[in-house]
Amino acid sequence: MDSDNNWRERLYVMIFQTDTVAGRRFDSTLLLIILASLVIVMLDSIDSVHKNYAPVLAGIEWGFTFIFIVEYGLRLYCSPKPLRYAFSFYGLVDLLAIVPGILALYYSDAQYLLIVRIIRMLRIFRVLKLSPYLKQANYLLAALRGSKQKIIVFLVSVSTLVTVFGTLMYVIEGPEHGFTSIPKGIYWAIVTLTTVGFGDIVPKTPLGQVVSSLVMITGYSIIAVPTGIFTAELATAMRGDSLKHDCPVCNKNTHEPAAAFCARCGNALFKKLE
Amino acid sequence: MDSDNNWRERLYVMIFQTDTVAGRRFDSTLLLIILASLVIVMLDSIDSVHKNYAPVLAGIEWGFTFIFIVEYGLRLYCSPKPLRYAFSFYGLVDLLAIVPGILALYYSDAQYLLIVRIIRMLRIFRVLKLSPYLKQANYLLAALRGSKQKIIVFLVSVSTLVTVFGTLMYVIEGPEHGFTSIPKGIYWAIVTLTTVGFGDIVPKTPLGQVVSSLVMITGYSIIAVPTGIFTAELATAMRGDSLKHDCPVCNKNTHEPAAAFCARCGNALFKKLE
Amino acid sequence: MDSDNNWRERLYVMIFQTDTVAGRRFDSTLLLIILASLVIVMLDSIDSVHKNYAPVLAGIEWGFTFIFIVEYGLRLYCSPKPLRYAFSFYGLVDLLAIVPGILALYYSDAQYLLIVRIIRMLRIFRVLKLSPYLKQANYLLAALRGSKQKIIVFLVSVSTLVTVFGTLMYVIEGPEHGFTSIPKGIYWAIVTLTTVGFGDIVPKTPLGQVVSSLVMITGYSIIAVPTGIFTAELATAMRGDSLKHDCPVCNKNTHEPAAAFCARCGNALFKKLE
Amino acid sequence: MDSDNNWRERLYVMIFQTDTVAGRRFDSTLLLIILASLVIVMLDSIDSVHKNYAPVLAGIEWGFTFIFIVEYGLRLYCSPKPLRYAFSFYGLVDLLAIVPGILALYYSDAQYLLIVRIIRMLRIFRVLKLSPYLKQANYLLAALRGSKQKIIVFLVSVSTLVTVFGTLMYVIEGPEHGFTSIPKGIYWAIVTLTTVGFGDIVPKTPLGQVVSSLVMITGYSIIAVPTGIFTAELATAMRGDSLKHDCPVCNKNTHEPAAAFCARCGNALFKKLE
């Protein structure tokens, strides 16, 4: 049974790690299969394709689901702590990638749930040399975390603006110009404030156009706010803020980035060599 | 009467403060009621809902107005300085949240004024642990205040651009392509410069399309201006947690908040009196 | 004749300067008149207004032109160096504000040229306490000047992108989907790249939609470029870059913003007081 | 044969360099010809022009192709290392500018390939005093290179978002509202997320409009991400005219370009060998 354990371990290294050649090859192949399975779902949604190739595509889809079931089984089998894997983030996602394929047998609409397989694509960062990307993602996340409260303040303000402007436009323009209800007015205000401007609902009255102009200029200007918040936080996260160095006299350990003297005791932080 | 005073004081703590459990619960409940009342106004504006449930919704709306009247009365009653509350920002907003409900009895359109209740939602910042949000809002406000003059210069330039381009397009395209007047041309210029682009009015002549291209590229580029202004100011405001004091020797003017000595020249920032 | 000179000088102070009460009042009144004259031009362009009030509006317009002629005459009369004024920027603008009013007698379309009067509105900065605004405008101009070359590189790249994409879409979509010529394709590419998106011309073929997606994501991403350029330049312009201080030993006069020692000779820039 | 070599060398200087008057004049003329040839291609694509002037334009086009053939021959002839030129970037572009003109004899659609001549316009930077522009372009490229990984993280996230939202909208809205397939849904999601908003496909169901609002607000907010990334990197790249060298005492790692001593601790940056 020792050779069995050995085989299981080698399988584990191949499936779960990316350091070995086999591991990288396994992950790359897996990504390609996931991508192919996504493409099949998309193709199947095109009417003309569905009419002509529905059975073929369903067969291929089944093949992919089978592959993923086998893969999931192998992961459970070779994992030293199967339960831990099963309830980890990746484990749940891997399960989610299988379920809709089985559900699709009974409810044909369930196949669109297959699109959750895209989450599995996150493994792509493991293939493209993991660590530098993660570090970059960490910078971005640090910047986002640092600006969380500012962003909530911003989103609450935007929601308020959008509600007020949407109601105003509903009252001004009325149902005959497409503003059939307050929620529709709010939808319009979001479309306009974010500068998307579909044009399915547009103001017709002069007063409505004046209010619209206000909404548009507001939207055009306040985009500066999330951008400014994020940029300032990112610059801070990248600069790494303060000088870490123990003051030789008072042991104060963080200083202004360019400090030459300790701000607490006034002694030179770095000895001048004679 | 001492117990009455005591009861009033406890009511005051519950209604006006958020430090106690009761106070937080009161504010949370109030927010939910405000939200519910806003949802009712919105639902009532949808035609199909209005047709079938108008009396029910009007009744619920009345209930909410009644609750707000009671709440306003209690606030006046338990406040140590009722007049001061009545004329404070929140006091006026609380009053404004009631008036349209009563007006709606006589003028049915007045009910849309109920949307001002959204301003009461600002209390949400009191529930979500007040202070850090306020500090963040202060940063944003400081950045906006710091960039006020730059923003005025920017808005005046944009207004000028929009007027000139709007008139130009009116002359070039003329009423037969939807540019029926100069104000309409200006409205179009705003829609285009802010990159909203509804598409309700579009240039048809080649020359008009050339001018439009100019407007669009201008709009696409000058969005950099408010963003740049705000970002630079925000970065300054965020850095500004620092001690503003001219070093008597080297004139370095910002220091760590607790600095006793200048980090650049090592001299004491503040003279020690003998 | 001394009293005449005196009177002329007082007129000069009132018309050309904004330090005195009379001067400010004169400039404010002038701005209001300019604004009113612009509003009249705009109103006159609205068809329903024009039909009913054309003669009245023409009369008012004439009145304004008359006022501006008188004002121009007074400026020439009281200016110590009339020719210098006449050929200054403001002098030419003031003249331009009159000419179309006279031309309009012969060519009715010329009245739209009256919109050039908006340039006179620039005087508004003189009324709103001049200097801080000018300083802010200088910051903005310094930032723009500093980024001039980067902006040219950016605009050339955008023009190239737009031409290539426009031609590509013309070949892919063809005249039957609205892309009737290469210039039209370029116009579409500008509309799309700048994220305006009128929707008057939209891709219909799958390949066209793929290329469009590329254009849109490009446009969405490269807006970061002018914003980044301008923000970085503005931050530099506002920070004021370097420490100006003569090194006591080698007289090097600019240093890193936080320098404690001279980078050329290694001596302390600021004496440490014992 | 010496005079022939001399003549060839002078030709080389004129054609390949921009330091001499003749060289600048040659490059300017070439740019004008390229521009003219692009304009001809564009004009020829306009239907009404094509109908009336097709033979004339084809003739002119032929003339331009002939000029470019001659120019390419001269470049090959006078270049000291013809093969090296032929396989350089500019050499290949110069060849590409000729081929479609010849292909157009057999396939009339090939003439649109002539638009690749726009790449030759890159020579414009050589005419407008080369070096400062190249330096600026280098800054931009350095900023882009520095943010490459962050941008990949960003693009992968956007692709995921767009796929998920596109599928969701296909399921919610369905073919009867224009969302005829998942790829079409993804196309719509890109149009909306990038705030282009053509308006050719718009959500009709309330649920679809709620999801759209989410997409729009996401798109409006996350534009901050590439902008923030690029701005922070550009600021770093612009600051980076500095000397990168770890101070042996305090580890300060950037210094003025000509620094001999560390501005923070005053120690010599480089050991003096005895």
From TrEMBL, chains A, B, C, D:
Keywords for this protein: Ion channel, Ion transport, Membrane, Potassium, Potassium channel, Potassium transport, Transmembrane, Transmembrane helix, Transport, Voltage-gated channel
Family annotation (SUPFAM superfamilies): Voltage-gated potassium channels
Main location: membrane
Transmembrane segments: 29-46, 52-74, 86-106, 151-173, 185-202, 214-232
The UniProt record lists the keyword Membrane: yes
Membrane topology classification: Multi-pass membrane protein
Residue ranges of domain Ion transport in the record: 25-235
Annotated InterPro entries: Ion_trans_dom, VG_K_chnl, Volt_channel_dom_sf
Subcellular location: Membrane
Native species: Pseudomonas citrulli
Protein name: Ion transporter
